[in-house]
Design a protein that fits this description.
Two copies of one chain form a homodimer. Chain A is an all-alpha fold. The first copy, chain A, has one domain: Farnesyl Diphosphate Synthase, CATH 1.10.600.10. The first copy, chain A, contains 15 helices and two strands. In chain A, helix 11 crosses helix 14 and helix 14 packs antiparallel against helix 15. Chain A is globular. The two termini of chain A are 22 Å apart. At the A-B interface, helix 5, helix 6 and helix 7 of A face helix 5, helix 6 and helix 7 of B.
């Protein structure tokens, strides 16, 4: 346990992704109740639309992985006080704000299987409620009073936005390199995982080596998380447990499976990707063909492998800490992120 | 000088709005150069689109009234250090971020006589660069290290967003009351003026009475500023110096001149406002008719009068401070805000 295993091995052992999340869930369950209360409390406003829209997303059953990172990290380093609740809530607000803005930017219709907020309340309110939640996140951090945590999270806010703009600039560009793509997800996804984990140590005023270890853990876990996300969007049919959505394909989003399939493909195949992704001309059966091309080039398997490799870096980053329940829980989350099928 | 005078009086005296801004401009000119340098520096990013889009707005010749408030307030209370530069720059970034998001929310085509950023770079990048600037603003404040200033400005960020949502909820509702409208502009406009001025005293760690005096000054000045804005959007033809744009009318935006004309009007007139504002059915000549109805009910003059009344509150809020160059400059700005014609 606690060791990163390949997909195949995990399946052989009959280990489920959910099983790897359990230790973390148990560790943080009490604190997560306090966080859920605080989040609902801070989404209150005299302006009715704000709590309505905020609750739509807050109640929609996200896993709350990021605040759980903060809580577990603070426990790992022996933090005894109560400010981790507010810091973790601020992390979730920051995440929620970026989701709201993302939905507007990506023109998404759905989020977590429900209608996206923007489809109910419109793009305008969605942008503004995102801004409101950002402001509330920083207010909570000010209440906590740690300038170091404020630095970590305001930096994350700027970096996430930078990553999103990078992604926008790379949109539909099928010749994006793997390195360029990694830079994008490092900013848009991994930065918040890194900040969430690092904050847990910063609040406890732990030495730099513990903070950087948790930061590195969070960053690499975040990259792995995003890569698995990318793979699952195409991998459904070939994976018994999952379901491909094809959203990325239909939106012409550049992700690693696509980058690999494009590079590994021949002239004809590149023409297919150019038509569907770059020019956005998608016909009946194109998604099935895309998934088939990816399989023929092992692009999905390679993406899972790359993710597993980042998972290993995350695992090793934690090794400076002595064995503990918290360390084990955080390392098992890596397995969860690699094996999850939704 | 330094006394709030009515529009008529000011005109008789041949006093120009620009003359009332001069003392403030002189007082802050050196610091504003430093702020301009810092702002350009902090808009730098490896992602090309970010500095391009940010500069479009930053260089577009806004008056920078808000950061000037911060600088003048800090000088007023005898602040000697250098952090006011970063705080004032953060205030301008916050303002710029809200302008970017506003343009997207209002679907504006123009801003300060130039194409709105969203017309060049699209709504998506505009939302995200706003987020980037917000993150950079908080990072600058973290560098300064005053939790009090961080509290003031993160609160302002949340309140501004709240005000914008309130405005959205009141959109096209011609029976919005004057009180409801004041609550909206108190949040969406006055909160940042208040925070900008209060920050100047907070950075100097001045006692509460000086901070609240500057906050009250900023708040009332901000309301006056917004009301004059509202009046100018309709008042052009009747005012030799200005030009009405009619933007608010065409967008169906509820502002005080409209609220007053609707309430003071008869059944026929209300039917006109319902058709044009609520239903958005605007025909040739409707704006001229709207402006004419407002004149017939003195709605523009009343809006200027209300603004002048808030200006007086702002003026008195400053009276606890002993006479000084700074105090006089800040009080004269009130006259500028009331008499400006653009």
């Amino acid at each position: 346990m606690g060791v990163v295993v390949s997909l195949g091995e995990a399946r052989k052992n009959g280990q489920t992704a959910e099983g790897s999340l359990k230790p973390l869930l148990q560790l943080v369950s009490k604190d997560m109740e306090a966080i859920n209360r605080l989040i609902l409390d801070k989404a209150i406003s005299d302006v009715d639309m704000i709590p309505e829209l905020a609750h739509h997303l807050i109640d929609s059953g996200g896993k709350r992985l990021r605040p759980m990172m903060t809580i577990a990290a603070s426990k790992l380093v022996g933090y005894q006080d109560n400010d981790h609740i507010r810091v973790a809530s601020a992390v979730e607000f920051l995440h929620t704000a970026t989701l709201l803005h993302d939905d507007v930017v990506d023109e998404s219709n759905q989020r977590r299987g429900k209608q996206a907020a923007r489809m109910i309340w419109g793009n305008q309110a969605t942008v503004l409620v995102g801004d409101f939640l950002l402001g509330q996140a920083f207010l909570m951090l000010v209440e906590v009073g740690s300038l170091e945590v404020l630095r970590i999270l305001s930096n994350a806010a700027a970096v996430i936005a930078e990553g999103e703009v990078m992604q926008l600039a790379a949109a539909k560009n099928t010749s994006t390199t793997e390195d360029e793509y990694l830079a994008i997800i490092n900013s848009k996804t991994a930065a918040l995982f890194a900040a969430a984990a690092e904050s847990g140590a910063a609040i406890a005023e732990r030495p730099a080596e513990e903070r950087t270890a948790l930061k590195s853990y969070g960053k690499n876990l975040g990259i792995a998380f995003q890569l698995v996300d990318d793979a699952l969007d195409y991998a459904g049919d070939s994976e018994q447990l999952g379901k491909a959505t094809g959203d990325d394909f239909r939106e012409g989003k550049i992700t690693l499976p696509l980058i690999l399939a494009f590079r590994r493909g021949d002239e004809n195949e590149r023409a297919f990707w150019t038509r569907t992704i770059k020019e956005g001309k998608i016909e009946e059966g194109d998604f099935e063909k895309a998934a088939e091309l990816m399989r023929s080039h092992d692009a999905i398997e390679a993406t899972f492998e790359r993710a597993a490799s980042f998972g290993k870096v995350a695992h090793d980053a934690m090794e400076i800490f002595p064995q503990s329940e918290e360390k084990q829980a955080l390392q098992e989350v890596i397995t969860f992120c690699l094996q999850r099928r939704h």
